[in-house]
């Protein structure tokens, strides 16, 4: 402390007087980076180091950053769980859309088909399904009957008898009766030749004829089956399976009368060709037609059933 300071009795410089270092004269201030006393402004206040800490300037506490949420860690965890759930839902939605797209675009042919064709295809499939279901029901019913003891044996016997009758009628070994037509051919030999009679038989078969026989004017008859042949005989006669028939000729046929009559009268058909040759063909519907002429059983020398 300098002499001037002691004279004041306070130990501090008078107001407006510069502060002098307390060290010996001519020695630099031992405090590092201490400012030069001459550079200090006379008006700058000198901090009082003896002041209480409470009197010093309070440093404001740092304020929370904008957007910070109270209870930070727990809120962040909640937001993280919600984000993960949303990501999972979006992934499932995308997978569903991809699977649906692949499913609808699997068949490029159907994708390029017109709507009318798709409707027709759907209708055909429905009809086929109904037919197959009906056949399945019939087969299941037959199976149940065949497996039911005595009733099954009786059903099997009836089924075998029915099939034998059908085969006998087709083979000409059994007589037949039913609705049909009586068709009469008359005229010169050229008009009612074996070729014209064979054409008539083929037309009747195509129209659903189930049994037929042909008869001559003298009453000689022959059963018509799949193996029957027709040959022109002398004097306008007709040879059928080795039997000689004289005209006019009458065919008795069992089947649907309207369908068979339409088949005979188609333009350019049998009736037209016989009339062009100078002959005539007449047909008459019959509620009951008897096909009583039988054909001898055919002996098979080579054909055998498949076991």
Question: What's the arrangement of secondary structure elements?
Answer:
Layout: H1 3-8, H2 72-104, H3 108-111, H4 115-146, H5 150-171, E1 176-186, H6 194-206, E2 211-215, E3 221-224, E4 230-232, E5 238-240, E6 243-245, E7 249-254, H7 257-264, H8 270-276, E8 280-291
Antiparallel strand pairs: 1-7, 1-8, 2-3, 2-7, 4-5, 5-6
Helix pairs in contact: 4-5, 6-7, 6-8
Notes on the protein architecture:
The chain has 307 residues and is of the alpha+beta class. Helices cover 41% and strands 15% of the residues. It has 8 helices and 8 strands; from the N terminus they run H-H-H-H-H-E-H-E-E-E-E-E-E-H-H-E. The strands form 2 sheets. A 5-stranded antiparallel β-sheet has the order 3-2-7-1-8. A hairpin with a 5-residue loop joins strand 2 (211-215) and strand 3. The chain is elongated. Mean pLDDT is 76; it is low at 4-10, 22-27 and 39-71.
The N- to C-terminal Cα distance equals 142 Å
Approximate strand percentage? 15-25%
What class do helices, strands and sheet pairing give? Answer: alpha+beta
Largest sheet: 5 strands, antiparallel
**Helix tally?**
8
> How are strands sequenced across the largest beta sheet?
3-2-7-1-8
- How many runs of DSSP E, i.e. beta strands? 8
Helix content: 40-55%
Low-pLDDT runs: 4-10, 22-27, 39-71
- Radius of gyration from CA coordinates: 61 Å
């Amino acid at each position: 402390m300098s002499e001037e300071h002691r004279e004041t009795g306070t130990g501090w410089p008078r107001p407006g007087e510069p502060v002098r270092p307390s060290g010996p004269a001519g020695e630099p201030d031992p405090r590092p980076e201490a400012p030069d006393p001459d550079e200090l402004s006379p008006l700058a206040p000198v901090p009082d180091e003896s002041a209480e800490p409470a009197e010093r300037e309070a440093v404001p506490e740092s304020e929370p950053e904008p957007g910070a949420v109270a209870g930070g860690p727990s809120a962040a965890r909640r937001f993280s769980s919600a984000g993960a759930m949303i990501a999972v839902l979006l992934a499932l939605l995308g997978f569903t859309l991809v699977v649906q797209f692949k499913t609808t675009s699997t068949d490029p042919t159907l994708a390029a088909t017109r709507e009318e064709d798709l409707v027709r295809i759907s209708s055909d499939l429905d009809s086929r399904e109904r037919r197959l279901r009906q056949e399945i029901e019939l087969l299941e019913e037959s199976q149940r009957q065949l497996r039911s003891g005595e009733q099954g044996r009786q059903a099997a016997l009836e089924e075998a008898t029915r099939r034998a009758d059908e085969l006998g009628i087709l083979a000409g070994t059994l007589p037949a009766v039913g609705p049909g037509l009586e068709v009469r051919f008359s005229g010169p030999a050229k008009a009612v030749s074996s070729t014209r009679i064979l054409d008539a038989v083929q037309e009747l078969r195509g129209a659903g004829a189930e049994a037929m026989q042909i008869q001559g004017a003298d009453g000689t008859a022959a059963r018509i089956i799949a193996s029957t042949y027709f040959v022109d005989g002398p004097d306008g006669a007709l040879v059928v399976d080795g039997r000689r028939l004289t005209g006019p000729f009458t065919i008795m046929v069992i089947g649907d009368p309207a369908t068979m009559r339409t088949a005979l009268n188609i333009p350019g058909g049998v009736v037209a060709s016989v009339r062009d040759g100078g002959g005539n063909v007449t047909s008459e519907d019959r509620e009951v037609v008897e096909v009583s002429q039988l054909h001898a059983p055919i002996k098979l020398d080579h054909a055998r059933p498949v076991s």
